[in-house]
């Protein structure tokens, strides 16, 4: 939803004029568009032209009928026995030719207007795509930081398609419809201005109805926004909800907020029904008025002939209808201009660091001395955070310099400045004394080889990947580079050797293999400067050794900068530079720095301990023969799983079998009475169209009645009947609208509630998957659920409506003339096809375009995702060329589409003319030979033609239906998923005297979203009831993870967690969580009052205000709350934004205390506070800890000293444990930390 909402809020200000959209058109394109416009003008005048023919035709029929009546009148004498009877069949022959002629012209014009415009647009769009992509590839990296890749990809596909919609067929269709509108009114005013004015006077009412309907849709989305924000809040803080067992409570809260959305939906249905009904009512009243007034002009004042009456009436009607149909085109123009604003601005933007520019000089000899002079820098995307602060570093040529420091200290940033991905805000970076801003970028980057932490490979063969390092490199060089990088052997072991495909993003290779290919790619450039950014950190020990050996080989004689966290990789560097807070604070060799006891020293002590312990463990497992194979097995399994996951993520997005309509209806069964009434309304509405043709032909019949009194009476009764039909259709539309919207909205609400409930029931690991991010899930609730109703109510209404329509039409026409009916039925499928085709044409082509763009989209996606790698290798041009090569297929497809689409459009426009041509010719024959009354010819033709168009309209509703079924399928997938850790079921063990005894036994764990990183490596630790256990260690060593295992957000992959001797996987989840209270580093509060936030601690019972206050007192919170104006009813704002951190912490503590937990988990509960509030919170915590088992995670030693057991963790295992004094006596890792007073980070 977040995406959608943003789009609606930030509809880009339209800064592009309509004609500016065509700024990339060549002269040839402009010529095509002009000719296309002329064709559209002529085409637009065809319908009003047809009216002129139609009027003459009516007059001929009526004249013939009057002559017949005079013949059958005995009182008239025959003069000379010669009768001049009108040869109606010959007359109709002429009219049929007129019709057919106009039809043929329309086909040709329709084909030309569409195909010319679509072709011209295709050429322009291809050019825009090329320009846009090549411009984006030239942008500086800082621009990519501020623009997400996803957004760029959507712009490449959707926004350019929007421009396409605005400059293609829509323009010609708009011109055509607008011409029809003008010509229709001209016919009306020229032929009979009085009647035209009368009809125009009533028409604004119709426009008002249409306008108001559009307004309402916006309101409904707003009404859902409240419930949407609840969902978003809950899903973003799912861990807190799970920890405090608030799932059921949240579902109820969400459901309460859905009521308003449901109300709006029903209200909207009612109003839509009301206005549709109202429009029909006005239309029928117009008919009545026009025929009443028109017939008086024909009969009483003899101003018009009956034909003129029809010409005027239909002229105005057609004009009004076409004006209505031209308005969607305006929408397309507006959204095209909006999309063009961003696209064109990007095309016109000049990059700050233009990587393809020829400017800048190239040095003849490069030594490779790099120096930073007082460099200050912050990323353009986060201008408030200073990354580098007056940094001064010298890197001498030919030496290996290592950068060390905690994460966020600015090491990688320094490397990116050397590559000139960014320019420093102050100071400068020099190469051999030259400011790198003056050097040619492509040349500068060609000197540098870089190996990153997560190397990016492109989806081609290994050889090609290495070749990206330097264009035109020979196979021999590739092999040499591979050998230098220790990659040759494993490549030769692969079945296709160097031609092995590495898969998307290198997914088919293991980490070590990817790293070595990346190193080979860096080496093949034969770089002067080698940058290694954590090149081995993601590897396991074995592959690390291999890669490290490769790196040591290649460092010789080059300027090398290496960033690393592992000591083994740094020890043998020539110079080590310690970074802290964006400054270089120390530099020297390994031993010198150890004596200084600074940044470097802290890193070393923590690490060497962890390494020792790990090696111990590895040795133990090696001594058991099974151990080794097991770990290798695990690795290969891990790898398989990775590949499977990669494949799965690809499949999941596409493969959704549309849900069966039966299952959707099953969810809607309680609303059957509404659906029944709605269907009745729909059936009556369907019958209205044919009834109209009955009345219309009846009026024509009255014009040939000779007796004036009878004629007047008939006309009046018919006009009255129009009014009655109008009133009936008003009420049935209202009924249909209300009934179906009610059933649909109830269904949507039910589905949203079930979907939300299912989401909250999933295990926490499910939310780690990026496809289930809070944004994606809220969108699913917002849109999918409301689309599902397209498959039930409105769909049934549509089907019933069109069936009734066709049924009544056929009954009427067969009853009056079966011969003529059979003739027209031959045309019926074509009519239905053509009007259905116009609706589906657009959706169908959009899909084909998408498929044609896929290949180009893959290239652009790969390029944008890996822009840093491409910039580092200087490969922008290659990708732009590849992209342009891929654009040819979509362009050819568009040209093909232009012809197909043009032909179909021409056909769908001319079919009505051809139908009329055939039917009136045969009708004339029947009137003359079989004495059929002429009004019946009109009756049959208009009944079937209107029902045919209705059929087409009904078939055009199917896209909604298909969409609804897919949405429903996605929903059912969610409802059917069985979570691995289920909150809702009551199974599992519970016991009464819960002690709080905790044992972790050999726990191994990896996060499901990152299966390649082992977080816990066999954690063993136990706590007795009432004891306090403190975890210390560097970040990422698995402290918080162990807490999450205890809460059972995850289950360990190996080993077990026991509570009071019960294995947690067998314990009832909600029972277990109800015994644990948690206070985390960033406590998450909900957008409600303080009291409600504290009550959230225990959702199983009602909590009195006294309990809240006593908990608040324990948490040192009470006094501060009482000082607030609204005391406990103060709203904390969304995510507690109205409060300071210390206040939030204390509320969180009160919330944990109120459930009186047996186990208290404090995850860095005071780390974010200043000293004063820390004291208060610390006191509160000490109070809360009494008599409970407690696990504390902390970085500050002061908070840990008085714990019963302190466990020092490193790399997922405990390396030493004991009380504070014992550990101090050991003089191990803990001792070093305490004595140096170094922060444990």
Automatic annotation (TrEMBL):
Domain ABC transporter: 370-606, 998-1236
Localisation per UniProt entry: Apical cell membrane; Recycling endosome membrane
Keyword Membrane: yes
Membrane topology designation: Multi-pass membrane protein
One GO cellular component term: apical plasma membrane
Annotated ABC transmembrane type-1 domain residues: 34-335, 676-963
Catalytic activity from the UniProt record: taurochenodeoxycholate(in) + ATP + H2O = taurochenodeoxycholate(out) + ADP + phosphate + H(+); tauroursodeoxycholate(in) + ATP + H2O = tauroursodeoxycholate(out) + ADP + phosphate + H(+); glycoursodeoxycholate(in) + ATP + H2O = glycoursodeoxycholate(out) + ADP + phosphate + H(+); glycocholate(in) + ATP + H2O = glycocholate(out) + ADP + phosphate + H(+)
InterPro entries: AAA+_ATPase, ABC1_TM_dom, ABC1_TM_sf, ABC_transporter-like_ATP-bd, ABC_transporter-like_CS, P-loop_NTPase, Type_1_exporter
UniProt-listed CDD domains: ABC_6TM_Pgp_ABCB1_D1_like, ABC_6TM_Pgp_ABCB1_D2_like, ABC_MTABC3_MDL1_MDL2
Family to which this protein belongs: Belongs to the ABC transporter superfamily. ABCB family. Multidrug resistance exporter (TC 3.A.1.201) subfamily.
Name of the protein described by the UniProt record: Bile salt export pump
Lineage: Eukaryota, Metazoa, Chordata, Craniata, Vertebrata
């Amino acid at each position: 939803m977040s995406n959608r909402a943003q789009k609606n809020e930030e509809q880009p200000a339209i800064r592009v004029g309509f004609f500016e959209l065509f700024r990339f058109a060549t002269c040839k394109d402009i010529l095509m568009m002009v000719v296309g416009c002329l064709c559209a003008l002529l085409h637009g005048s065809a319908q009003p032209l047809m009216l002129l023919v139609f009027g003459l035709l009516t007059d001929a029929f009526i004249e013939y009928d009057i002559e017949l009546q005079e013949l059958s009148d005995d009182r008239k004498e025959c003069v000379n026995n010669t009768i001049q009877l009108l040869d109606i069949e010959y007359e109709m022959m002429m009219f049929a030719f007129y019709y057919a002629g106009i039809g043929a012209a329309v086909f040709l014009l329709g084909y030309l207007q569409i195909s010319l415009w679509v072709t011209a647009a295709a050429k322009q769009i291809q050019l825009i795509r090329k320009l846009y992509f090549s411009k984006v590839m030239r942008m500086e990296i800082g621009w990519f930081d501020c623009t997400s890749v996803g957004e760029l990809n959507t712009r490449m596909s959707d926004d350019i398609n929007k421009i396409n919609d605005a400059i293609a067929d829509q323009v010609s269709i708009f011109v055509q419809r607008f011409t029809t509108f003008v010509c229709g009114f001209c016919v009306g005013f020229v032929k009979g201005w009085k009647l035209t004015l009368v009809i125009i006077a009533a028409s604004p009412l119709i426009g008002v109805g249409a306008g108001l309907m559009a307004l309402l849709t916006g309101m409904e989305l707003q009404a859902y926004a409240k419930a949407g924000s609840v969902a978003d809040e809950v899903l973003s803080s799912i861990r807190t909800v799970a920890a405090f067992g608030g799932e059921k409570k949240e579902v109820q809260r969400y459901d309460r907020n859905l009521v308003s959305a449901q109300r709006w939906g029903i209200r909207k249905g009612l109003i839509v029904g009301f206005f549709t009904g109202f429009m029909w009512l006005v239309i029928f009243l117009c008919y009545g008025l026009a025929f009443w007034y028109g017939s008086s002009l024909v009969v009483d004042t003899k101003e018009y002939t009956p034909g003129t009456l029809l010409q005027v009436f239909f002229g105005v009607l057609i004009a009004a209808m076409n004006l209505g149909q031209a308005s969607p085109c305006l929408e397309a123009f507006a959204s095209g201009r909006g999309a063009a604003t961003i696209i064109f601005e990007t095309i016109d933007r000049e990059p700050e660091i233009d990587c393809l520019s020829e400017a800048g000089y190239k040095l003849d000899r490069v030594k490779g001395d790099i120096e930073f002079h007082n460099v200050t820098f912050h990323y353009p995307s986060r201008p408030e955070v200073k990354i580098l602060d007056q940094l001064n570093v010298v890197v001498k040529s030919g030496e290996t310099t290592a950068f060390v420091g905690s994460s966020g200290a600015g090491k990688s940033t320094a490397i990116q400045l050397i590559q000139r991905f960014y320019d420093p805000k102050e100071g400068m970076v020099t190469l051999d004394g030259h400011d790198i801003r003056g050097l040619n970028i492509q040349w500068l980057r060609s000197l540098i080889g870089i190996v990153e932490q997560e190397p990016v490979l492109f989806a081609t063969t290994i050889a090609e990947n290495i070749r990206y390092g330097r264009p035109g490199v020979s196979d021999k060089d590739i092999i040499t580079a591979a050998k230098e990088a220790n990659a040759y052997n494993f490549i030769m072991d692969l079945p296709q050797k160097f031609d092995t495909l590495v898969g998307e993003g290198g997914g088919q290779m293991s980490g070590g293999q990817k790293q070595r290919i990346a190193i080979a790619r860096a080496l093949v450039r034969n770089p002067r400067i080698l940058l290694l950014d954590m090149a081995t950190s993601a590897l396991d020990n074995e592959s690390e050794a291999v890669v490290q050996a490769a790196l040591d080989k290649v460092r010789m004689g080059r300027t090398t900068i290496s960033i690393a966290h592992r000591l083994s990789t740094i020890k043998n560097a020539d110079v080590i530079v310690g970074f802290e807070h964006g400054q270089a604070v120390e530099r020297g060799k390994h031993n010198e720095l150890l004596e200084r006891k600074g940044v470097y020293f802290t890193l070393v002590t923590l690490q060497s301990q962890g390494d020792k312990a790990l090696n111990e463990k590895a040795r133990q497992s090696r001594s058991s023969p099974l151990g080794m194979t097991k770990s290798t097995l695990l690795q290969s399994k891990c790898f398989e799983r990775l590949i499977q996951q990669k494949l799965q993520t690809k499949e999941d997005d596409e493969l959704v079998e549309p849900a069966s309509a039966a299952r959707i209806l099953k969810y809607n069964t309680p609303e059957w009475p509404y659906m029944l009434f709605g269907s009745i309304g729909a059936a009556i509405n369907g019958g209205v169209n044919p009834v109209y043709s009955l009345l219309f032909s009846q009026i024509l019949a009255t014009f040939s009645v000779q007796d004036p009194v009878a004629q007047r009476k008939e006309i009046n009764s018919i006009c009255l009947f129009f009014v009655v039909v109008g009133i009936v259709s008003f009420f049935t539309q209202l009924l249909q609208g209300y009934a179906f919207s009610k059933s649909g909205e109830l269904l949507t609400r039910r589905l949203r509630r079930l979907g939300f409930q299912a989401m909250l029931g999933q295990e926490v690991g499910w939310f780690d998957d990026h496809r289930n991010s809070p944004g994606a899930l809220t969108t699913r609730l917002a849109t999918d659920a409301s689309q599902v109703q397209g498959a039930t109510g409105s769909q049934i209404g549509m089907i019933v409506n069109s069936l009734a329509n066709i049924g009544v039409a056929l009954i009427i026409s067969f009853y009056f003339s079966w011969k003529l009916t059979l003739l027209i039925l031959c045309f019926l499928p074509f009519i239905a096809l053509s009007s259905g085709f116009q609706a589906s044409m657009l959706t169908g082509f959009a899909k084909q375009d998408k498929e044609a763009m896929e290949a180009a989209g893959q290239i652009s996606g790969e390029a944008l995702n890996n822009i840093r790698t491409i910039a580092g290798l200087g490969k922008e041009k290659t990708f732009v060329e590849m992209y342009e090569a891929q654009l040819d297929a979509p362009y050819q497809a568009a040209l093909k589409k232009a012809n197909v689409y043009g032909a179909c459009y021409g056909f769908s426009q001319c079919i009505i003319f051809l139908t009329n041509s055939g039917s009136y010719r045969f009708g004339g024959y029947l009137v003359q030979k079989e004495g059929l009354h002429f009004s019946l010819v009109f009756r049959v033709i208009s009944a079937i033609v209107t029902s045919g168009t209705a059929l087409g309209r009904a078939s055009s509703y199917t896209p909604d239906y298909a969409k609804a079924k897919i949405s429903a399928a996605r929903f059912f997938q969610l409802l059917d998923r069985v979570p691995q850790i289920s909150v809702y079921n009551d199974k599992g063990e519970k016991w009464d005297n819960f002690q709080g005894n905790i044992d972790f036994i050999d726990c191994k764990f990896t996060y499901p979203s990152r299966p390649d990183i082992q977080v816990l490596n066999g954690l063993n630790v136990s706590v007795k009831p009432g004891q306090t256990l403190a975890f210390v260690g560097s970040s990422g060593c698995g402290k918080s993870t162990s807490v999450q295992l205890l809460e059972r957000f995850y289950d360990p992959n190996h080993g077990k967690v026991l509570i009071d001797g019960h294995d947690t996987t067998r314990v009832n989840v909600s029972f277990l969580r109800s015994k644990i209270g948690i206070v985390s580093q960033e406590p998450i509060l909900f957008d409600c009052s303080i009291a409600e936030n504290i009550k959230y601690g225990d959702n199983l019972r009602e909590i009195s205000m006294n309990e809240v206050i006593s908990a608040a007192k324990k948490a040192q919170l009470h006094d501060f709350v009482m000082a607030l104006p609204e005391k406990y009813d103060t709203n904390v704002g969304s995510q507690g934004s109205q409060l300071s951190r210390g206040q939030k912490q204390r509320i969180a503590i009160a919330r944990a205390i109120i459930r009186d937990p047996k186990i208290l988990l404090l995850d860095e509960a005071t780390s974010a506070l200043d000293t004063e509030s820390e004291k208060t919170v610390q006191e509160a915590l000490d109070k809360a800890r009494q008599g409970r088992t407690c696990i504390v995670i902390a970085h500050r030693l002061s908070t840990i000293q008085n714990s019963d057991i302190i466990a020092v963790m490193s790399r997922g295992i405990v390396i030493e444990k004991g009380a504070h004094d014992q550990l101090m006596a050991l003089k191990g890792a803990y001792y070093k930390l305490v004595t140096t007073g170094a922060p444990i980070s």
